[in-house]
Amino acid sequence: MALIGQPDVKQAGEVRPEKVTAATQVYGALRQDILKGILKPGQKLQIDQVAARYGAGANPVREALNRLSSEHLVDRHDQRGFFVPQLSLESLRELVKTRCWLESKALEESIANRTQAWEDNIVLAFHRLSRTRIRLPEEGGDNSEWEVRHRAFHNALIAACGSSWLIGFCNEMMDHAERYRYVSMTTTYPRRDSDEEHRLIMEAALDGDVELAKQRLTDQYKLTLRHLEEEQIDGGSE
Amino acid sequence: MALIGQPDVKQAGEVRPEKVTAATQVYGALRQDILKGILKPGQKLQIDQVAARYGAGANPVREALNRLSSEHLVDRHDQRGFFVPQLSLESLRELVKTRCWLESKALEESIANRTQAWEDNIVLAFHRLSRTRIRLPEEGGDNSEWEVRHRAFHNALIAACGSSWLIGFCNEMMDHAERYRYVSMTTTYPRRDSDEEHRLIMEAALDGDVELAKQRLTDQYKLTLRHLEEEQIDGGSE
DNA sequence: TAAGGCAAAAATGTAGATTATATCTTCGGT
DNA sequence: ACCGAAGATATAATCTACATTTTTGCCTTA
User: Fold this and answer.
1) B172 — alpha (psi -120 to 50), left (phi > 0) or beta?
2) pLDDT digits over A212-226, tens only?
3) What CATH number labels B89-229?
4) A19, B78: Cβ pair inside 8 Å?
5) What average pLDDT is seen over chain A?
6) What is the pTM of this model?
């Protein structure tokens, strides 16, 4: 129905600042702590403890945990409670394999739909990433800034793929990959030469060389996997 | 209580049947009602009403809604409540496109990893599907049995792809596709000739003809999309 | 018509009751 | 004494009832 000049239209894009609830805050905090490995794989997330930790009541905590359980960032067992999921080399391999499949496809589509804005964003994201120094353990070892930019770069690559589903799936997997990186961060750091690899991916993408770009992207993931395989990252299961 | 002759032995390594909580029951019920279109797209899910409907308290309902929100089966707005997501032709197109991409890939991998058991399950699933009659509106129009078997068939095809991530993503999208089918069920029914299409997909897959199988699979999805496009399924947004 | 102000409605959160699970203890048989 | 079953206690998850906070709808006023 064409509503000409309707006064208080609720436009789809209207942004009313949504006041965040306690549940949402706990959700965000828990998410970070799980991704960063502060909460250990296998650990039980007891309601009372979590509530105390984040200064919230049992219900908001419970809601947050329920959300996270649907993202597979916590395991839920009825009447038994919530747990931080275990990590394993085997599931990491499956994760990387699937990332290669899906991000390749997303990159391919993105290149097919390339626009000026897409290219610009990639260049920008790369620039920011390459200017972020990797901090070694001696320096405090907080690489969360790098993680954020790293993720932004990979997101920029696939942003034009034309499927919010696919972007969502890739992001979900990025979350989990990030957790593996953080948990093994005690021993492994982002490689110094990753900048160069990212540059190569970017260049192939901007050149419109689909096959080369996909190749370089998946090579990078596989290389990172190999590095992690060399460590024992079986999340405390032994 | 104590059922004589049926003592609840706890065998070693036994998988103890998890007693379902109220939250989980509501979750399942809500999920079904949303997928089947009983709860209309765009509709507000008021806590009290939902609680009354399923005979539960506010908290279990809230937990169920939080889980569903992470699956994109309900929209959540802090302090504003929960809603059944809208449907639109545009997002259906994106959904179908993404399904084609991912299920093609999954099918390809499945065929590459084919085993006897995989083939058997496909044959079995096809048999069951083909023996399920489609009920027209006059006959009550409940095609949930068909939906279950239809889904089982497509799952059997991709079961050997080697990635639980990919299988999960495909299933998530199947849920949403199912909702589109149910909502437009007033006018559209599973096509009579879909049996034949499924047979062709199965045959190509069992023959190990990757390209043909993928082609037939995606053709089917695109054909179904075209059928739905001919209807107005824009969930009451106008 | 537009802004401001209320009151009702609804979402969210708290506290404590209830129920299930896990743990510990006891008892009978070997 | 040792093992396992049965029962009792402690712990923790879950749920209910109600308090608090925010939003929504409506009415008044400029």
Assistant:
1) alpha
2) 999 999 999 999 999
3) 1.20.120.530
4) yes
5) 88
6) 0.88
